[in-house]
TrEMBL record:
PANTHER family named in the record: ABC-TYPE DIPEPTIDE/OLIGOPEPTIDE TRANSPORT SYSTEM, ATPASE COMPONENT, ABC-TYPE DIPEPTIDE_OLIGOPEPTIDE TRANSPORT SYSTEM, ATPASE COMPONENT
Residue ranges annotated for the ABC transporter domain, each copy included: 9-254
Annotated organism of origin: Metabacillus endolithicus
Family: Belongs to the ABC transporter superfamily.
PROSITE patterns named among the record's database cross-references: ABC_TRANSPORTER_1, ABC_TRANSPORTER_2
Protein name: ABC transporter ATP-binding protein
Pfam family, one: oligo_HPY
Keyword terms, alphabetized: ATP-binding, Nucleotide-binding, Transport
GO molecular function: ATP binding
SUPFAM superfamilies according to UniProt: P-loop containing nucleoside triphosphate hydrolases (SSF52540)
């Protein structure tokens, strides 16, 4: 599937500075991006390069020090509760640490039901139950076994799949996935990726993967952004960036993955 030409989210000169004086740290430095509808983007960079900080600004969870983020061609306003609620209906995230994404005092049933309520659908109890079951089946979880559990009673992999079940229910326009497979084994990893790719096929979702795994980025993405020390040092189609890297940092990243094609040629 090819992404649309329509730019859904764009950033101009996005900068985030943490701390002051001697402790000043420019985590994201004058970053520009254009994410299109239906596009799969990977932001690749080593630990500490600013990927999560950038993701949090795109989500509106962290305020940029300077720069402008536009959504659907308009400068994004997130002042009121109403603005934020509307934005988060369209943009959802899965973070590295799934524990931080859930209210730990809510059982699985409520966590999923909240997603249905958020959309303002008027459904009967049975219809809601069916939808929650369908979402769990999509991610290979058994709703009957989990609905009465708290998030901390689930394994890391179950939590990550539960997060994808929520995405299934919310069907956002944009999904930001920050190391979404960090807590699962290699087999579940490709299953999780396939689930996300299927969601994109069905909903024309824009997916932004954040990872330091170049192989994974190549396997899933249309477009790559390579980050080093807060800056985007290279960007372009996954093929052009990885087959013909221009920047020394990208060349270094790739030399760390000598068998890129073989490792990710999953048939
Ligand atoms: N809340 C914060 N306060 C101060 N400094 C922060 C904060 N969050 C991140 N940083 C700093 O910003 C820089 C970028 O961190 P960030 O978490 O964005 O990196 P990352 O690319 O996501 O790394 P990783 O691959 O390890 O997740 C780091 O130097 C980090 O210490
Ligand atoms: Mg991170």
């Amino acid at each position: 599937m090819k992404p649309d030409q329509e730019v859904l989210i764009s950033g101009k000169n996005i900068t985030k500075v943490f701390g002051y004086g001697k402790n000043k740290n420019t985590a994201v430095d004058q970053v520009n991006f254009n994410f299109h509808r239906g596009e799969i983007i990977s932001i690749v960079g080593e630990s500490g390069s600013g990927k999560t900080t950038l993701a949090k600004m795109v989500m509106g969870l962290l305020k940029e020090t300077s720069g402008d983020i536009e959504y659907k061609g308009k400068s994004r306003k997130l002042k009121s509760h109403r603005d934020r609620k509307a934005y988060w209906q369209d943009i959802q995230a899965i973070f590295q640490d799934p524990f931080s994404s859930f209210n730990l005092f809510h059982k699985v049933e409520k966590l999923l039901n909240d997603c249905i309520e958020l959309q303002g659908l008027k459904l009967s109890k049975e219809e809601r139950f069916e939808k929650m079951k369908e979402a769990c089946t999509f991610v290979n979880l058994k709703f009957e076994e989990l609905y009465n559990k708290y998030p901390f009673e689930l394994s890391g992999g179950q939590m990550q799949r539960l997060m994808i079940a929520r995405i299934f229910l919310l069907h956002p326009k944009v999904l930001l996935a920050d190391e979404p497979t960090s807590m699962v084994d290699a087999c579940s990893r490709s299953t999780i990726l396939d689930m996300l790719l299927k969601l994109r096929e069905e909903n024309n979702m824009t997916i932004i993967f954040i990872t330091h795994d170049v192989g994974l980025a190549y396997y899933v993405s249309d477009t790559l952004y390579i980050m080093e020390k807060g800056k985007i040092v290279e960007q372009g189609s996954a093929d052009s960036v990885l087959m013909n890297p221009q920047h020394p940092y990208t060349q270094q990243l790739i030399s760390d993955v000598p068998k890129l094609h073989e490792a990710w040629d999953l048939g």
